[in-house]
Amino acid sequence: MRWRGARRDLLVDLTCLSLAFFTAFVLGADAVDAGRQGPDGYVLACALLTLAGCVALWQRRARPMAVALFEVALAGFTEYVAGAMLIAAFGVAVHRPWRQVALVMGVGCVAAVPYALVRPDPDLAEAGFGPLGQAVAGVALSFLLMTPPVAWGMVVRARRELIDSLRERAERAEAEALLRAEQIRGREREDIAREMHDVLAHRITLMSLHAGALELRRDMGAEEVAKVAGTIRTSAHQALEDLREILGVLRAGPGGEGREGGRAGAGPRPQPGVADIAELVSESRAAGLPVLLEDRLPAGEGVPPSVGRTAYRVVQEGLTNARKHAPGREVLVGLARAGKDELHIRVRNALGARAGESRLPGSRSGLLGLTERVSLAGGRIDYGPRRAEDGGVDFCLEAWLPWPKT
Hints:
alpha+beta, Heat Shock Protein 90, five-stranded mixed sheet, 11 helices, 10% strand, phosphoprotein
């Protein structure tokens, strides 16, 4: 690309130099035909000045202002540099602001005065123009000659600035689009990470509790062992299905269908809601966690799917933490309408594990992710140790989600 640009610049420079020499040749031939070429010394000086003016055009890109002022200064002594002067004026109009363009035109008009006085036009003299008239005519002619290339150059400059502005705007829009896409991908990753934590932590803690029962209850019969082993296998299968579905969404991206996300032709499984909390409690009871569910929601009033999904995740996280940090302790799950426009979820359990129960390690990130999830849903959350009625200390997780009356 750079080589192509250099070749194009060389071709343009050669074209400008050829036009400047051709203009000088035409003007010189016209002066010879009219018999006003002047003495030989003057002709030689004009030839040398014209050669210098044409060669100076090679520097018009690097020093457009200096070259233009040099050309208009030479125009005060010889008319043969007119072509080079117009090309230099065009270069200034392309590369410099209008104030410098006006300066070049002004100097060019002023330079026409001494030339008109030293080399008066015979036709104007025959028409009765004196020195002042010759000077005015020279200024007018110089202004008329310089106006077209200067105007053309300013149009070219405005077009280039417009193209550069459009290109910069397009690049900025592309960069902003990439940034927005990256932010969307980041939010998608965070959503998937929270989903994986909520789902897998629940399944794995269930498997851990059942496996712990097999380890501690050595007096279990073969039928009971088989039942517990079947529960572990079912939980592991469900965990793998959940993981496969989430990874399928991750591979497909937003709006796509994962390559491994379920059976071919099958859509994603329905998202859990408030109606699925009872099944979630039953799973925890089957794992040996005593859970009491108090459902005080008004009959016949459906919870919006987004609110129900968040409520399900709140209860799931509460039960998961209870199994991890207080296994064997009774857990109270409460659902109720708070006021007129909120769904109140409460998960409360006594702190500490019973004798013989082992505590599972936690990542300490579930409640943080849950807080963000509830906040994005427009609700609020509160959790921490609370004084129990029997004088002990309970851990209480509460959330209030928006649930406007319909």
